[in-house]
Amino acid sequence: MQHSKKIQSLEVEDVKAIEAQLPLHGQHPMALQLLDALHEVAVLTLNDDNEVNYANPFARLIFNLDAPKVKARKHKPTKSNLYYLLEKLQEQPSEFTLQYAVDSQVRTLKAYAIDLINQKTHQQLVYMFDTTSQVLSDLKLRETEALLQVLIDTSPDYICIKDGNNRWLKANQKLLSLFQINPESYAHQTNVDLATTIHPVFNNAFQYSEKSDETTWRTQKAYRNEEIIYLPQGTEKTLDVSKIATFNSDASRQHLVMYAQDISEQKFIEKQLQNRSAILDALISCDWLLHSSDSWHAVAKTVLQQSCLALRFTRAAILKNLKQADENGTYSKVLYQWATTGFTVPINNFEAINFDDARLSRWKDILQKGSPVFSEIADLPAEERLLLKQHDATCIAIVPLFVENAWWGNIVIERCYDTDKTSSQELGSLMAIGRSLSVAIQREHARRNLNLAKIAFDSASEGIMIIDTNGCIIGINKGYSDITGYSEEEILGATPIVFQQGPHALWKCLASDGKWCGEVINHRKNGEKYYEWLTITVVKNQEHQITNYVGVFADITEMKRSQSKL
């Protein structure tokens, strides 16, 4: 039906009444009754002059039509509500949406227009359904979706919602940015689809996600796991991933919700604490081993192993400095070494580190001062870097070992693969292990020297007594007992006679020279008088304070008798 008239012609005074009989009214009264009974469905017919021939009660209510005039098929519409309807019909649509106001409330109609043509009349049937509830529901749904999008976008977590076919429906900007996904094109894409558009480094993560999605659907249980996401710049993130699947009433798949927390910092802290705990355990263990063992040689390899494992190094060795045969240089000799499986290195590789080499003069100066040498290969000067490359290492630490204030040797510890850099605390721990080893070596040296001294002490034919600063005897040798007849139990705590009535010159010599010697008359346990040649020596500590006196005497009685006979 053509509507050639302008909208202005729809005014009440310009519309002519139609007297023609409406076929629907005359021939189908039951149909009219049915149309009149429709709820929230408006039906009306218009002729070519835009006159309303029929309107059911809902249409009369909507368009404020005069019911008696409509039923007489003589009614000219008012402009208020029908005006917009007629304007839409003039555009000749088959369906359209119409909104109107009732009691300050906006109502929405879905309208359909059909041409009714027969031999006598040409009319247009318009029927309209009230879709206000649906429109409001759709509006509420859109508002809810917008609110949901705001919530997931402002969430500190990574969030994604998928449909029953594992297609992405919604994802927050944080997740899209993590995987560098275009926010305009991800919707309704599967993991497989998206994997072809993102950086290749994410492929493993998406493949694993696809498997865990299917596991969540299949088991119908909440999924949770820690997953590492490798990033294009070479770093990584650790995510605590959770997934929940929802199902329709018929058990078909509905939605899958994934949310993940970035726990990278937490894992880093945990790792640092674990490392520190491992280092502390290694420190305690190494110190206990070195102090409780009869010989540091028995635990040397264990100390190297625990140091490497705790500090994440590959191999280590204990080297001793030795003089060249011509005494003009030094070289290193490997005493003990340990290496992670697969990284065993020939001994001469360590011994090849020649500290007399001009290229290592800087290292030698540092080590002789008691400080460690530590560096990543990339941070070394060119000549040192070349040496380290030849040694197949990416990182090296050398801790000097000092015995009796002399540079005795080194712990050399190396890393042959890239990993986290060694912290200053870890290097300090390695230094502490080096100090414990130095103490153990020095203690063994002292014990060996003491054993030698004890052998000499007990084997000497001369009498030897050790005296404290109070002048009391605190130790004697077998020679003392052989000469005097007194046992150690009988003489301990006694004061030598020379200290009791010694000449003034004795104390003067001890103070000036640290030693005094002279002839002394003494008595054996049986009361026999004898002559002794006594030497007293002062013993001082590192602070030059007197700690002891050592007296050594020989029985010269027979020599005196021989002299008197002469």
Commentary on this structure:
By secondary structure, the chain is an alpha+beta fold. It has 4 domains: 7-130, Beta-Lactamase, CATH 3.30.450; 137-262, PAS domain (Beta-Lactamase), CATH 3.30.450.20; 270-448, GAF domain (Beta-Lactamase), CATH 3.30.450.40; 460-565, PAS domain (Beta-Lactamase, 2-Layer Sandwich). The chain is 39% helix and 29% strand. It has 20 helices and 20 strands. The strands form 4 sheets. It has a 5-stranded antiparallel sheet with strand order 2-1-5-4-3, with helices on both faces. A hairpin with a 5-residue loop joins strand 19 and strand 20 (546-555). Helix 10 runs parallel beside helix 15 (424-459). The longest helix has 36 residues, at 424-459. The radius of gyration is 53 Å and the shape is rod-shaped. The N and C termini lie far apart (169 Å).
